[in-house]
């Protein structure tokens, strides 16, 4: 069967691309390896700016989030209130969210095929693309939205696969009244290099569930088990059961660390985690996957109108990705990432930033926006750098001297 566009992967990146391409009237097929309503290992925290693409109905965005709590081994709870509509967010199960996004794209006219893993993609010079799975399809162009599960497809097409870190998570069954009382509408983030050298841990509240996990370079089961023993967590989840999904209580999944250099070739564009678009400050990638999916779908339509799916035509995707996702966002996330995770001062910087924010509304808002995306990463970086002497004072001379090489490297990114 022949389509104008085939999208491989039905996560937020693929579903958003499918909706936007279908809205322009082209014939779109999205092929998803998993069955309908699959479980996805993800904390499911999203900022309100996801509504740039589709409204989020009540029930899908299970719990509204209006603040956060930070912990380091020395300090915490360091609470912040994220008031105002632009600072709001949601915590939800990806099962519901991804199904909702796929339903929306189906309503827009995309055809969705579940339970079909694409095994091979062939690009024939001058001809259509062949997509080979349980069945064979043809299309003018392919969007790869496979998350980090499509490495073989990418490599076989001569495309890079992003570097990645590992996440481990469980969903703990907790009555809603207890979630309300003990966690409220807050995301809880833990920064502790003794627990995990290059990463974070979290508790994200849903309606009757807590997503509890760790993520970082080399994250393993022992890091997750150690986090469950954190006295603050242990006391609150003692005796509670982990929910079972697909026969498993604890799930592991990777998340990319960096965007790939060339996310396209003739007739192919790569979006979302497959392209490495996730933001490595707090390791969130849903919004970024959707934005890249939207851009790819728009570039596809321009190429479709010109009947030109060559490398030069699709390079527009990379250009727009750099403009809207890299220049003022990911580039600065990499600077923050470097400063936080490569300086050996993760906890000290978090504590100092929080202290500075207490009597500095601009610093507070720019810190909050690292969670909510309400301001660009460039803005948050500029605010932090304009207070670097205050930071030096709070870190102390010894730590500041230690910070200098990392800071110089971060400034060069
Ligand atoms: C533990 C953990 C916690 C996280 N928490 C958050 C968070 O709170 N907030 C946030 O924003 N991000 C979070 N993320 C990141 C987020 O999950 C990803 O960035 C996001 O899912 C990327 O979306 P995507 O559409 O690119 O890929 P995915 O969501 O991974 O979707 C890819 C889809 O492609 C399908 N697929 C793969 N290969 C094939 C194939 N060959 N044929 C057909 N289908 C295929 C898969 O089955 C999958 O459904 C977290 C990640 C992890 C690991």
In words, what does this structure look like?
The protein is α/β, with parallel strands linked by helices and 413 residues long. It folds into three domains: 2-37 and 96-163 and 258-328, 3-Layer(bba) Sandwich (FAD/NAD(P)-binding domain); 165-255, D-Amino Acid Oxidase, Chain A, domain 2 (2-Layer Sandwich), CATH 3.30.9; 343-412, no CATH class. The chain has helices at 12-23, 94-107, 151-156, 176-182, 221-228, 231-237, 286-306, 311-341, 346-358, 361-372, 377-385, 388-395, 397-412; strands spanning 2-8, 28-31, 45-47, 63-65, 67-71, 78-81, 89-91, 111-113, 120-123, 129-132, 136-144, 164-173, 186-190, 199-205, 209-216, 250-256, 264-265, 268-270. Strands 1, 2, 8, 9, 10, 11, 17 and 18 form an eight-stranded mixed beta sheet that branches. Strands 6-5-13-14-15-12-16 form a seven-stranded mixed beta sheet, with helices on both faces. A hairpin with a 3-residue loop joins strand 14 and strand 15 (209-216). The longest helix has 31 residues, at 311-341. The radius of gyration is 21 Å and the shape is globular. 50% of the residues are buried. The model has no long low-confidence stretch (mean pLDDT 95). Flavin-adenine dinucleotide (FAD) binds next to helix 1, strand 3, strand 12, strand 15 and strand 16.
Question: How is this fold's topology laid out?
Answer:
Elements: E1 2-8, H1 12-23, E2 28-31, E3 45-47, E4 63-65, E5 67-71, E6 78-81, E7 89-91, H2 94-107, E8 111-113, E9 120-123, E10 129-132, E11 136-144, H3 151-156, E12 164-173, H4 176-182, E13 186-190, E14 199-205, E15 209-216, H5 221-228, H6 231-237, E16 250-256, E17 264-265, E18 268-270, H7 286-306, H8 311-341, H9 346-358, H10 361-372, H11 377-385, H12 388-395, H13 397-412
Parallel strand pairs: 1-2, 1-11, 2-8, 5-13, 11-18
Antiparallel strand pairs: 3-7, 4-7, 5-6, 9-10, 10-11, 12-15, 12-16, 13-14, 14-15, 17-18
Helix pairs in contact: 1-2, 1-7, 7-8, 8-11, 8-13, 9-10, 9-12, 10-11, 12-13
This protein binds flavin-adenine dinucleotide.
């Amino acid at each position: 069967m022949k389509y104008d566009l085939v999208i491989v992967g039905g996560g937020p990146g693929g579903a958003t691309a499918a909706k936007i391409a279908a809205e322009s009237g082209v014939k779109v097929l999205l092929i998803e390896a998993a069955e309908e309503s699959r479980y996805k290992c993800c904390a499911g925290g999203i900022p309100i700016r996801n509504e740039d693409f589709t409204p989020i109905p009540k029930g899908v965005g299970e719990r509204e989030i209006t603040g956060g709590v930070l912990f380091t081994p020395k300090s915490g709870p360091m609470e912040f209130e994220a008031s105002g509509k632009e600072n709001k967010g949601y915590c939800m199960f990806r099962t519901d969210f991804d199904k909702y996004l796929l339903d929306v794209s189906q309503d827009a006219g995309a055809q969705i095929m579940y339970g079909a893993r694409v095994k091979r993609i062939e690009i024939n010079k001058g001809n259509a693309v062949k997509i080979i799975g349980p069945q064979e399809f043809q299309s003018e162009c392919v969007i790869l939205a496979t998350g980090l599960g499509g490495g073989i497809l990418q490599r076989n097409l001569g495309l890079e696969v992003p570097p990645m870190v590992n996440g481990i998570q469980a969903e703990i069954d907790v009555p809603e009244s207890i979630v309300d009382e003990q966690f409220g509408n807050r995301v809880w983030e833990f920064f502790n290099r003794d627990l995990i050298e290059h990463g974070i841990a979290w508790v994200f509240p849903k309606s009757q569930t807590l997503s509890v996990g760790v993520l970082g370079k080399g994250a393993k089961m022992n890091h997750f088990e150690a986090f469950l023993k954190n006295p603050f967590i242990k006391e609150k989840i003692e005796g509670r059961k982990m929910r079972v999904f697909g026969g498993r209580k604890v799930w592991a999944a990777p998340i990319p660390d960096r965007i790939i250099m060339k996310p396209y070739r003739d007739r192919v564009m790569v979006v979302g985690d497959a392209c490495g678009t996730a933001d490595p400050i707090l390791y969130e990638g849903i919004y970024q996957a959707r934005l890249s999916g939207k851009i790819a779908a728009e570039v596809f339509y321009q190429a479709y109108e010109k009947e030109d799916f060559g490398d030069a035509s699709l390079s527009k995707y990379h250009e727009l990705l750099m403009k809207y996702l890299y220049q003022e966002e990911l580039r600065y996330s990499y600077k923050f990432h470097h400063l936080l995770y490569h300086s050996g001062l993760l906890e000290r910087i978090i504590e100092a930033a929080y202290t500075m924010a207490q009597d500095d509304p601009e610093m507070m808002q720019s810190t909050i926006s690292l969670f909510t995306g309400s301001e660009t990463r460039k803005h948050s970086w500029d605010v932090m750098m304009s207070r670097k002497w205050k930071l030096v004072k709070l870190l102390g001379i010894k730590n500041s001297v230690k910070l200098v090489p990392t800071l110089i490297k971060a400034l060069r990114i």
